[in-house]
## 1
Amino acid sequence: MTDQAIKVLLVEDDEDDFILTRQLFGEIESVFYSIEWARTAAAAIDRIGAHQHDVYLIDYRLGESTGIELLIKAQNLGVKAPVILLTGQGEPEIDLAAMRAGAADFLIKGEITARSLERSVRYAIERKRAELEIEKLAAFPRRNPNPVVEFTAGGAMSYSNDAAEAMAGSLGETSIRAIVPQDVAQIVAQCLRSGTTRNLQTSHGTRSFVWSFVPNPEGQVVHGYANEITERLNLEAQLRHSVKMEAVGQLAAGVAHDFNNILTVVQGHASLLLQARQDDAEIAKPLRQICAVSERAGNLIRQLLMFSRKQVMQPRHLDVNEVIHNVSRMLQRVMGEDVALEVIASAQLPSIYGDIGMIEQVLMNLAVNARDAMSRGGKLTLSTTVQSFAEADTLLNPEVRAGSFVCISVIDTGCGIDAITLNRIFEPFFTTKGMGKGTGLGLATVYGIVKQHNGWIDVESEVGMGTSFRLHFPCSAKVSTPHAGAPSNEQKIRGGSETIFVVEDEEPLRELVTEILNLYGYKVIAAESGLEALKVWETCHHEVDLLLTDMVMPQGVSGRELAERLLKENSQLKVIYTSGYSPGMAGKDLALLEGFNFLPKPYPPSRLAEVVRECLDGTNVTTSTT
C-alpha cells in the first residue's frame, strides 16, 4: 500500500450506491483511497473547481442534471484529473456520448467489482498523466520560436508549429507548405533510410533558409527545422567584400610608390620639353600625348588609392550644401540637355570634416554614372538631410553607427541595376560598360572616399525604376571654413630667388625637381637621404628658406624626422612633404600629414612651383595638429 492516498470525489445522488462504492474502494489493498461524497451536481461543482482530487466518479443521472453535463462543466473549469462515468444500466449511446465528452471510462454499477474499479481508476489516472506529458511534449515544438514541421514517411506534412506558419506569412504565403523544399519526399526517404540528419539551404525571394531534416528514432516520421540565415549570409558577403576591397587596396598601395615616382619623372620631363619646344609641331604633339597619358595613369593610381582609403586627405570643415551648389554648375554641362538637375538643400545643415576635392569627385562620379543610365533623358536629384541613428539601427546594418550624420542623396530615374550587378558595383575594375568605355573605378573610388571619411553608402535600385545612392558622413561640431578656390594656372605662377633644400632618394626625380626649381629662379641644395641631409644642413642651415622632403627614405631618417630636427634649429623654416606612397604603406608618419603642406606624386612641374611659392608666401602655413 502506498503512503499517499488517492483522493476521489464521488458524485452520487443515491446514498446506498455511495456506501456500496466506498466499500468496494475499501477492499482494495494495494492503494489507499480517500473518498469524498457530493450528493448533487451543484454541490459537486464547487469541489471540482478546487482541483484537489485525483479522479472523479460521477453518476450519469443527477436529478435535473446529467453526469455528462457536469463533466463538460468540469472541463470548462480546467480540470485535468480523469472523470469516470457511472450508470445503472449498460446504454451504448450514453457510453459513446461520455467518451466523446472526454470521460476516461464508463462503468455499470451492477457489474462493478473492487478489482474492476481499481483497474479503471488506475488506468484512468495513468492515461491522464500520459496525456499531460504528451501535451507538454507537443507544446515544445508548438511554442518553439523557430519553425518546426513534421513529415510522414511518404513526405506529406503532418504538423507545423505557429512559428512555421508565421514565417510563411512573413513571406507572403498562406502555408509553410509553399516554402518547403520541392524534393522533400526524396529527402525524407533518404533520412529514414540512413537514419541521419540532412541539411539543405533554400531561398525564397531575397531571404535564405537552412532546413535540417531529422528522423525520429522509430523511423516513422521526419522532423524539419527551418533557420533563416539571410542576415548571416549578408554579413558574410559584406565581410568577403571588405576583405576583397582590402586586398586590392593593399595591392594598389604597394605599387603606388614606384609608379608615382616613375610618372613624376615622365610627366615632368615631358612638360619641360613641351614648354621648350611648343613651336615645333612634330615634337609638341607626341609630348602632349605623353603628358596626357601620364596624367591619366596618375589619375588611375589616385582612384585606386581613394578606393582603398589610402589617399592622403586635406580635410577641413565643409558646408556640404556649398559643395553641391558649386559642383552643380559643372554637372549641368556634364549631364546634357536631356537630363534635368534638381538640388534640394536642407536648411541648418551641420558641417562635415572632409576633403572638398574628394567629395566633389564622389558627386562627379555618381553623376556621370547616372547620366549613362539615363540615355533617353531623365532627372537627377541631389539632396541633403540630417539623419540620426540609434544603437538599435547598428544591429540591422553593421556599417551604421549611432549618432548624427549628413546624408547626401543622389537619385536618378535611369534604367536601374539588377540584383546580381548591385552586389558588385563597388568592386574595382567591375563595369557593365563596353570595352574602352569605363575603367570600373568610378564607384570603387566613391566607396573608398566615403569610407575614408568614416561614412557609409546605402544603395537602392530596381530595374526600370532608377537608382538611389545615399552617402552618410559624420556631422562636425565646428563651423565650415571657406574654400580657397581653384589653383591658379601656370601663367600666373611666380618664381623666386629663395633657397630650397631638396631631399629625395630617387636620383632621376631629384635631378628633375632641381631642374624645375632652377627654371623658376630658385637656388637648390640637394641630398639623397635624411642622413646625408643632416650633414649638409650643418654647412648651409643659415641660407635655407624651405625644405622639400620625401617622406620615406633609406638610412633610418624619415622625412618627418628630418623636418622635426631641422625645425628645432630653425623654427621659421618652411616645409613641404612629398611622397609616392600611400599612408597605409608609409606608416604613421604619412597618415599624420593630413592638413599639412603635402604634395602627392605624381605632380606636374607647374604644381610643384605653385606649392613652393604658396608655402614661401605663407598662403599655406605648415601647422601641426598632433
## 2
Amino acid sequence: MNNKVTSPEDFFGFRMGSDKKIARWDKIVEYFNKLQQQSDRIKVIDMGSSTEGNPFLLVIISSAANMKNLEHLKEINAKISDPRGLSEEEAMGLIAEGKAVICQSMSLHATEIGGTQMAPELAYDLLTREDEETRRILDNVVFLMIPCFNPDGQIMVTDWYEKNVGTEYEGCGLPWLYHKYVGHDNNRDAFQTNMVESQYMAKVMFKDWHPQAYQDHHHMGSYGARLYIAPYCDPIHPYADPLIWREHSWYGAHMAYKLEEAGKTGILNAAIFSGWAHLGFHWIGNYHNIASMLTESASAKLATPMYIHKEQLQGGEYGSLVGTELFPHYKPQTTFPHPWPGGWWRLRDIVEQQKISSWALLDMAARNKETVLWNAYQKAKRQVERGGCCKPAAYVIPKCQNDPLTAEKLVEKLLVQGVEIKRATEGFCAGDTVYEAGSYIVFLDQPKMGLVKTLLGRTYYPDDAWTRKQDKTPYRPYDTATDTMAEFMGVRVDPIECHPEGPFETVVKTASPAGRVSGESKIGFVLDGRLNDGFKAINLLLNEGAKVQRIDEELISDGVTYPPGSFIAVGSRSVVEKAARDAGVEFRALKEKAKAHEVRRLRVAMYQHYWGGNIDEGWTRWVLEQFGFPYTTIMDVDIKKSSLNENFDVIVLPSDNPAVIVGGEELEKWWKEKRPGFPLPVLPPEYRSGIGQEGVDSLKKFVEDGGTIFTLGEACDFATEKLGLAVRNVVKDLNPKDFYCPGSTLRTEFDRCHPLAYGMPDEGFVLFWGGMAFDISPSEFNERYEPVARYPGRDVLQSGWLIGEEKIAGKIAMLSAEFGKGKVIMIGFRPQHRAQTHGTFKLLFNALIN
C-alpha cells in the first residue's frame, strides 16, 4: 500500500462543499477506487448498475485486521441478529469477538447533495487520521457507507447545476424527476423494493450485514432549523422493540453534543419528523431491530450560498408535519438550545454538520461496542419472545387467491426483507379453517416480528393528542397512515391465533411461475383474467400480431370457471407458448365457444410536465413497462396540437392538481394558496409547464371526437372542472376535522361485470390518499355515467386513519362517463400508487385494453 492517501481537495481540485462546486458521481467513483489502491482500511464493492447504468457502490471501512476478517465478522453479526438456538453464554462470546456494524447512506434525494459531497472527506479522515478516537472506530466498527443512493440523479443534478452557473437560474431545481421513474419517492420504496437501487440496499441491510444502526443523510427546507437529528418525535409506530427508541435518543444525544462542541448552531432533535412515517429505509429499519435514523440539513441553493434574514427563520407550522407543537417557534428550547442567527448558508456548512453527525454515530458505537451488540441480541431475542406469546401467532397466505401470482410476489418481497416464511407441504387446519398444501405461513416468533405485523397486520393510525391540534384539526402524517403491504397488493392474509402443527418447509426463494399451455384446442386457449401478469402475456401476443379475445360473461370450460374479462388467444400454439413462458402464466385449451369480443392495441399517451416532474407519472410509466404496455410520453406542446385523435386512443392524466396541468395564472394562484409568502420555483422559461386554455380545448375536442381521457387521483378534478362533467367530488374543500383520510386502505365494492373492473373481486381494498369520492348530479343524461366501484355503506376503513366515514360511505370511487363520441374514466384514488398497489393495477390495465 502507498504511504500517501490522496486527499479529496487534491483529487477534485477544490474542498468538498466549496461554493459553486459539485463533484460528479463518475469522479467520486474514481476517487473511491483510488483510495482502495492506497489504503488497506477500505474495500469498494460495485453492487451493480443503477437504473440508468451507473455504478452503485458499497464502501466498507474498518481496520486492516478487520478488513481481512470481514466474512467471519458478517457471520457473527448474522448470529447475533437472529439468536434463536443461541445460549446467552454463546451470545456473550460472539459479542466479545464481534464488531459493531454501522451503515450510513448519502443523498438518496439527488438535490440533497451534501451527503455525497461529504462522503469522500469522511472516508479520507477515517483512512488517514491516527488519533485514539479514529483507531477506536476502526478497531471496533465495520462502517458500511453508501456514498450515493441515487447515482443517476446525482449526475443529472450536477450537470444541470453546472449548465446554469453564472445565469439567473443558478441553483434552481431540476425541471424533471431526479430519477428516471420515481424522483423523491425513491425512499418510499424500501418495503416493496421495486427499484434496483432499493434492492441493493435491502441486500446490504436486511440479508448480508444486519447493521446495529443506520443513518440516512437528507436535506430539508431552508427557513427553519439548520439540522435535524435523532430522535424522532411522537407518534411512534407500535411494533418496534422499545430499545430502538432508546437507542435513537442515545445516538442523537451524542450527535447533538458533538455538533454543539464543534460550534454548530441551529441543531434540532425530537421534532418535525415522527416515529410513524413511510417505510423508507430510515424508518423500516427500526422493525428489523436496526436503530434507523436520518439527518435533515437546511438546504442552500445546491452549491450556491443562500442568504437568510433572522426574521425569516421559523418554527411552528414549518413544513406542516406532525409534531410541530414540539417546535412551536424559532426560540431556544431543550431540543433546540442554540438557534442559528441567520446569514449566509453554504454547502460547506452542510458538509461539515453531516460529517460531524456521521462521525459521532461511529464514535458512539465504537465507545460502546459491547453494549451495541448486546442490545442487538436483546432486541432480536425479545421480539421472538413477544411473537411467541402474542395474538395473532402467525399469518397465513392461503394458496387460494384472486390473483395467486401476485400472492407469490408478496412472498418474494417479504423474502427480500429477510422475513422467515414457511410453506405447507400438506394441508393443515387453523381454527375452523382448512388450508391447502402450498399455502404460506409466517410465524411471529421470529426476530422480525415487528416488521411482519407492520406489513401484514391490520393497522390503525393513532387519533390522539400527538396527531391532532387542540381544536381537533389533524396533523398531517409524515406520508401514508399505513403501509400494509398485503392490503396494497390485494392478497388475502389470514391472522391465526394458534400455532398449527404441520409439515412446513422453510422458503428460501419462490419458484418462478412456470408458464405453459395445457391441452389441445382448435378454438383457442383461455387465460384467467384475474391475473395481473396475464396482461403482460396479452401484450406479448399483441406484439406478435396474434388474435386475442376477451370473454363478456362467466365461462365454464373443462370444469374450470373463468370470470368475465378472461382472455382467449387464437392462433399459433407456439406463439401462445412463448407468451405464457415469458409472462409465467397458464393458458388452457378452450373446450367450447364463448361470447367474446376482440382485443385491439390501443394507442396510449401519458402526459408529462416540467416543474420538477410528476412522481405519479413516473411510477405509472414504470408499471406500464413492467407489464408490457406501450405508451407515448406527451408534453404541453403535443397536447396543444389539434391532431390528438390521429395519434392516440387514450390519454392518461396521472394524479396532479388541475392548476399545475393548466399552468399560467391558475398555477400562480394555486401556489400562493399552497405556499403563502413563497414564490414559485424559478425555472428557465422553456420549463415553465402548462397546457393553457389551448390545451384544455384540445383535450376536450379529443374526447368529443371519440378519444378517452383517463384521470387518476387528483387529476379527476381536471375532468370535472374543465370538461364540465355532471360529477361532484363530495369531499372537495371539506375541513379536515370533518373529513380526513391520509393514505389509508378502504374497503371497496367493484362491479366486476363492468369491463373496467374485469378480474377484480367483488370486494377489495384501495389506497385512498388525497383522493376523491363522487356523486353524479341529476341530469337528463344520467345513463351516460357508469359507476365502476363504490365504497360500502359502513365500516369503510381497513387500515390507517379515516375521519368522517359518513362523507364517503356509499359514494362512487370510480366511474366512466360518455362525453361526445368518447369517454372520460375517473378513478378517485391512485390504482398504481408507487407500483405498490398491485390489488388495483387491473383498473388501470383494463382501461388500456379495448
## 3
Amino acid sequence: MKLLIIARPFVFHGGVERATVGLVTALVEHGYDVHLLSLRGQAPVRGVRLHTLWLPPLPSAARVLALAMNARLAVRRGTWDVVQSHERTLCQDVYRAGEGCHRAYLSSLERPRARGLYHRIVLALERRVFARTPSIVAIADAGRREIETLYGVAPERVTVVYNGVDLERFHPLNRTKYRETARAEAGIAPGAFTVLFVGSGFARKGLATTIAAFAALSDRESRLVVLGRGDAQEYRSGAARLGVGERIAWLGARADPERWYAAADIVVLPSRYEPFGNVHLEALASGVPVVASASAGGAEVIADGINGAVVNPTDVAGITAALERFRDRSADDLAQAARRSAEPFTYAAQVGGFARIYSRFTHATCDFP
C-alpha cells in the first residue's frame, strides 16, 4: 500500500516527535510504501520517501492556512492509496488528531485568549477536518469523546489508536546504566527522592503547579528535575519565592530523556490539556510511576495507587499528597507495575490499529473537489 503521511518536521526528538518517528518506522517495517510530506528541515527517515512541502515565511495565521492549501496541491500531484494527515489539512482520508481539539484547548486555558485571527483560522480548519475527513483517529478515549461531543462526529467515523513507545530505549534496566552518572551531572545526591517534570510548553503542562506541590513536600532533601523547552525565568522566580530554587535542576531540552527517567523516582505532569502525552508511556516503560492529570488522555494508562496517581491538574495539595504516598514505596515493586502497564503499547500494536483503518480504503478519496 502506498501511504502518504502529512506531518510537520520531527527533527528535535521530543515526546511527540519520538512517537511520530516510531510510527513511521514501524509502518515501513510492516511493508508499507511510506511517503512523508513535510516542510523543509525534515531529516531523512530510513525507508521513507521524503517530499518537501514548500511554505514561504508568513505570519502564524497565514502560515497555518498556507500549509493546508499547499498540502492539498502537493497531494493532487501524486497517486496514493491512503493519505493520512497529522495536521489540519484539506486532503486526507485519515486524520490523526494528535493535538486533540483546538476548541477544547482554548477552553482549558486559565485565562482564555481572545479569538484572534490565528485561532479563528485554526478553528475553521478544524471544523472542516472533522466534518469532511472519512476516518478520524483519536489517540485516547478522552479525545474520542471530545471529538464526538464538540463536533458532532458520528462514532463510527472515530477510532482510538493509542501511541506506541520504544520499549527497548525506555526500560527499567536504564536505572543501573544511567542513574548514578545522570544524578551526578545534575548535582543530585544518590539517595535524594527525585521528581521529574518533562514537557515543552510549561504553562499548559503545569510546571507552576508542579513547583508549588514540590515545595510543599515534607522531605526537604528531595529534588526536582525540569526537562523541556520554554522560557523558565518566571518559574525560576516562583521557585525562589517558595524557597526551593536551589533544589531544582533546570536541564532544558534534552535528546537523552531515558537517562533522566532512570535518575528519577517519580514523574509529575499536571497538564491542563493533553490529548495523550507520550511522557506517560516513556516513564512507565522506564519503570517510573506517574502523577498524571485527570485532563490528560495519558491518565487512561494510570491505575491509581499502582503505577501512579490521577489528580486534578490544579490541585497542588493533591499532587503533594500523591508524591508523599509514593516516596516510601518499594522502588522495585513500582518499577514492575509501571513496566507491565506500558508493555501493551508497542508500535506494532499502533500499526495494527491503523491497518484496520486503511483496509477500508481501496484508493485515496481526498475531500477536495
## 4
Amino acid sequence: MIGKTLGPYQVVAKLGVGGMGEVYKARDTRLDRTVAIKVLPADVADDPDLRARFEREARAIAALDHPHICAIYDIGEADQVRFLVMQCLEGDTLAARLSKGPLPLDQVCRYASEIADALDKAHRAGITHRDVKPANIMLTKAGATLLDFGLAKLRGAAAPISMSGMTRMATATPSTAHGTILGTVPYMAPEQVEGKEADARSDIWALGTVIYEMATGTRPFCGETPASVIGAILKDEPAPLSALQPLSPASLDHIVALCLAKDPDERWQSAGDVKRELTWAITGGQGAAQIASGANRRSGYLRRVIPIASVTLLVGIAVVVTWLLTRPSPTADVIRTSVLAPPGTILTPDSAAVAISPDGKMVAFVVGDPQSVTELWVRDLESLTAHRLDGTEGAQLPFWSPDSTRVGFFTRVGAGQKAQLKTVAATGGRVDVICDLRESYGRGASWNGSNVIVFAPGNGPLYRVSAKGGEPTPVTTLDAARAQSGHRFPVFLPDGDHFLYAALPRHADGTFDIFAAALSGGTSTLIGAMESAPVFAEPGWLFYLRKGVLAAQFFDVHALRVTGDPVPLADEPVSILNTEQSFTAGPATSVSPSGALAYFSSPPTNTTATWIDAAGTTLGTVKLPVGPFSGVRISPDGTRAVFVRSNSVTNASLWLVDFAHPGAVLLASGGGRNESPVWSPDGTRVVFASDRDGPQNLFVKNLADASPEEPRYQSPVEFKYPVAWSGDWIVFTAVDPNSSADLWLLPASSPLGDTRPAPYLRTPRKDYLGATSPNGLWMAYVSSDTLGDQLWVQSFPKLGRGQQIATFSVQTHWWSSDSGRLVFMGTDKLLWRADVAPGATLTVSPPTRAGQLPSNLVAVDMMPDGSRFLALIPERTGTGSVTIVHNWRAALEKKR
C-alpha cells in the first residue's frame, strides 16, 4: 500500500492495525494535510455484513464533533479498496504508555475525565462504543483521544450482523474476544460476556476498568485464559484502588467502584455523571453535591445511594482535601536527604544493610565500631538523631515488619556467637530469637502480613518460619538443571503469598536469575535476569541495579512479569556489595510504599597496599594505580604480587607489581571479571578465573613473554576459581548445586580439552579456600557448616582422615615455607597459628593467638617466610551515607 494513491490521498507509511482495518499515514493532496487512512481488508470487503459495519463506523464517527474523539474526514473507494480518512494523531496509545507502568494520579483523573466527556458526547448521539480499552485511546499533547468506534452500534439503526460474519470477524481480529462476542474480554461488562444487549452503561464499565488500570498498572479482572477472565468479571470483586495505589483518594475508589457494579442499574447511569465526579475529585470538592444527584439514574441506584449520600459527601470532602494537601505530586520537587553514621561508627558499605520502614517514617541501618563490631541503629526521619538497639551486636541485613513496629535481622557466626534470625522492637527492648540458622550467615528475609518470615539461611533454598519463632521449613527447591547453589533476598508481593528471590550462581554478564514463588506451593516462575535482587514497590515497580545504576521497571503482580523498559532513578552509582560479598546478589535499595526509598551512597574509594607485621604495625606501602583493589597474591619468592582491581560489579582486571621496581603492569583485562590469581610453584605463570567468554573459566598467563593468556579449563559450571598450584596440580573450587562447593584437581600441564579434572573433596558441606603445603603433602581448606567456616587439614593429593584445626570462622590461611606451621585469620581479623609436626602422620597443635590485623582490610596475603603481611586498606574520602529519596514516584516520572 505504501506509495499507492487512493483518490486524492497518497499513502506514505503504515501506522498499524486499528479495529478491523489496517491503518496508514497518507497525504491529502487537495488540502495539503496529513491524514490517517483505515483500509478494509479485501477478504472482509466482500462480506456485506462486515462492509456494512465498516461504513457504520464511518457514519458513527462523522456524526460526532468533539476534541477528544478522533475526527473522520472522508469515506471512499478506489481500485476496489474501501477506506476511511481520519484525523492523524501524534502520540502513543494508552496501552503503550501502560506498558511502562501506572500513570500519576493527576494524569489518571485528567485522561479519565476527557474519555468520559467523549463517551458522553457519543452516548447523547445514540452511539455506544462497545470497545473502550487502552489500545483505542491515543495520548497526545492535547490529552486523550478516543479511537475506533469499530464496534459502535447506532441506536435503532444497527442492522444485525450474521453469525458467519461474526465468526470471521473474531478470526480476523484477534484483539477482540473469541467467538461471537464483540469487544475485548478484560474490558467487557458482565452483560456483554453473557451475550446480552450492551448500552451506554457497558461503556461506563469499560471506562472504570481503564481508570483502574491507569491508576494501578494492572487490570481489575485477570486470568490465564479468556474463559477465566470472563469468570472473574462475572463473580469476582477487584481489590480497591487504595490497596494497590495507596495515594489514590477515596473519591476515585468510589467512582471506579460504581463503574464496575455487576448490575448495570447499580452503575453510574451516564458518562456525564462520571465526568462530573472526576471533576469534583480534581478540584477538591467543587460540584460535590452532585454525588447524590442525577434524576436520570435508575431507581435501584437511587435506593442504594440516597441513604448514604450525606455521609459519603462529608467523608469524601475530608479525604479528598487531605489527599490534595498531602499527596506527593509528580510535579513536586524530589527531596534527597542523607543519614550519616553516628559519631565513632562507620556505616556498613552495603545497601542490604539499610532498610526503610513500610510507613516511610524510620530507617534502620547497620554500623560498625572501630573494633568492627556491628550493631543495629534506627533513626526517625523526623528526628536529627538515631538510637542504638541494644542487644543487636553482630547484626546484619535488617528488614521490617509490615506494621513498621519491629525490625528483623541476622547475626553471623563469630567467636562465641551463633548465626541466628532475630527481631527487636524499633523503639528498643528485648531481642527475640526466631530460629538458629543452618549455615554461618543469612542472606535476606521478608515479613508478610500473616506473620510469616521467608529467609535465606546462607546457601541452599529459602525457608519459612513464624515471626513468633519455631522450626523453619524449606519453601523453595534448588534447580539442579540450572546449577543453582542458593536462593537469596526474598521479597513478598502484596498478596502476602507470592514472593520474588534471586538465584545463584551469577551469570557471566553479572546478572542473577530472578524467580517468583508462592508459600501456597507450585513451581517457581522465571521473571528475568538482573544485576541485583529486586525490591518491590506498590503498585507494581521493581527496583534493581542496571549497569551499576539504580533503575525501576514496571512489574505486573498478576501476570508475574516485567513490562516496559527500565528507567534509571539515581544518577550516581549505588554501592550494594562490599568486596567480600561480590556474589551475594544483594538488593540495591530499600523502598517504602509511602514514597521514600533508601540506599547506601559509597564515597569514592582508593586502595593502599600496606606492609604490616602480625601486630598490625605499618612497615611501608606498595604503590598501586588509583582505584579500588580487592585481592592480592604474593609470588612464591616474595618479590612480586598480582593485584585484583575491581572496576565494577561485572569487571575486574589483574595488575602485576615488582616490589623492587615501582609501577604496576596490566596483566589481564580481557573483559568481564578476571580474578582469583594463583602463582605456579616456580613463579613463572599465573592461573586465574575469568568470565569473559560466558561461564567463569580458568586461564593461564605465562609471565616470561608477552603472549596472551591461554584458556586451560572450560565447563558449564558458572563458578570456579583457582585456590592453589602444587606440583602437577591446579586446585580449584567449583560451585555445585547439591553440595554448595567442592575442591577439584586439574593437571597443570594438560592443554585445553585434553584432560578432565578429578574431584578431590566432595562433601555435603561447602569446601573451599584450599591451600597446599609447600612440601605437597597436605591441603588446608575451609569447610562451612552450621558452626561456621572452619579450618581443616587433609592429606594431599590422596584423601586420608581430615583433622579440624579451628572451631571458629576462618577467613583466610597460609602455610609457612617449611610446611611446619599454619597461620590463619578469623572474621574478626585476629591471627592464629598451629604447628604441624613433620612426618607421614598428620599432627597439629592446638591453635594459639598470633596477632591482630587491621579490621578494615579487604584482602591480605602473607610473605612466604611469614615475616610480614601485605594488606589492602580502602581509603574513602568519607564514611559514606544513607541516601533517602522522598517522593520517588515523582523522581521516576521525571526520568521517563
